Amino acid sequence: MWGIIATWAMAYDGVLKGSKLLIDKHSAVDAIEETIKSVEDEPNFRSVGYGGLPNEKGIVELDSGFMDGDKLSVGAVGGITGFKNPISIAIKLSEESYNNFLVGSGAEEYARLNGFEVKNMSTERSLEIWREKKKRFSEENIRAYDGHDTVGVITLDTYGKMCAGTSTSGLFMKRKGRVGDSPLCGGGFYVDSEVGGAAATGVGEDIMKGCLSYEVVRLMSEGLNPQEAAERAVAEFSEKLKRKANLSRDISVVCMNNKGEWGIGTNIDEFSFVVAKEDMKPVIFLTKKIDGKIKYMEAKDKWIEEYMKKEIK
After folding, report:
1. CB atoms < 10 A from the CB of 305, how many?
2. 185, β-bridge pairs
3. Which CATH number does the domain housing residue 61 bear?
4. Which range of residues forms the domain containing residue 143?
5. How far from chain centre, in Å, is Cα 312?
6. Regarding beta strands 189-192 and 280-290, do their DSSP bridges make them parallel or antiparallel, or are they unpaired?
7. Identified catalytic residue from 7, 35, 81, 150
8. φ, ψ for residue 276 (rounded to 5)?
9. Are 54 and 46 in contact (CB under 8 A)?
10. Does 82 belong to an annotated binding site?
11. 8 pLDDT band (50/70/90 cuts)?
């Protein structure tokens, strides 16, 4: 049995590539790296990798995290600039005995010493959007955009190994040096091959407060199925935030257990994700809330077409 689940419809091509590797009995590590790299390399997806939207200074700062569910080894980078495919750097860091989470210039020095590809991750379109926003910022006092299009992926290979990974350029117009939940183990991602894995997307400042990916895996370890675990974790924490802070912003989580069963939790009206399994080709799903419960359905061709138009706009 193999399986893969990823946040957002933008991950479809990556999931297709990753699933082919899993079919050919490659490892969960290979599959997750290929899946996330596919999203990082596509400039039309402006919340991840190449063409990611810049911070307030006009610089694309990238965050990425990776976890091996067999070893519980973790690697992560935060605020890294000028290097292609931060997920690959995070995977390499997970192989180190110490210094597994590097940020800023330290992460960049490590990437340079280990031969990772140097690349200007800005595109003319991403800078054009930044300039437009900067002008409006000065005129209308607009703050950072609360986007939440992190790519988060869980993979399960035919040998029973599981991995979790994330990659993002973070909030558009964020402050220089801002890091959200995506590279934080337990917040943006968590996996244990004996149980399962989870990855989050949304407003990192909220997600990191609840260690949500770890919480979903913990609930699965107590016997909840993936859908129950994800739905319960997101709903309960969203209610806690409303009670304590009078505000709960966008939070979504995808998860999969070591049997290939999957689930999602979200507090937004519409959330898209992609799933592929041994008995199911890659499918884009959409969520809807019906009578207070999360339901999901396969995305129609028209919705996918409109989604892509929006992405490349």
Report:
1. 10
2. 189
3. 3.60.20.30
4. 3-312
5. 20
6. unpaired
7. 150
8. -140, 145
9. no
10. no
11. very high
Would you state the structure tokens that stand for residue 269, as one six-digit string? 């009206």
Tell me what pLDDT residue 313 has. 60
Question: Which amino acid does the sequence have at 288?
Answer: K
**Which run of H or E residues covers position 154?**
strand 151-156
Token pair belonging to 226: 């993936």
If we measure between CA atoms, which residue out of 14, 278, 29 comes closest to residue 151? 14
Neighbours of 132 (CB within 10 A): 10
Query: Is 201 assigned a ligand-binding role in the annotation?
Result: yes
pTM: predicted TM-score of the whole model, two decimal places: 0.96
Sheet holding 262-266, edge to edge: 189-192, 196-202, 251-257, 262-266
- Assigned token pair, 235: 């709903």
Alpha-carbon gap, residue 183 to 288, rounded angstroms: 28
- Is 181 part of any known ligand binding site? yes
| pLDDT bracket for residue 143 (50, 70, 90) | low
For 193, the 3-state DSSP assignment is: coil
Distance set, CA 167 to CA 45, 136, 275 (Å): 12, 28, 18
Number of domains in the chain: 1
Please give the structure tokens belonging to residue 22: 């899993």
Q: Consult the annotation and say whether 269 binds a ligand.
A: no
Distance between CA atoms of residues 180 and 241, nearest Å: 17
pLDDT at 129 over 80: yes
* pLDDT at 231 exceeding the cut of 60: yes
The pLDDT tens digits of the residues spanning 20-36 come to 999 999 999 999 999 99
- Active site includes 7? no
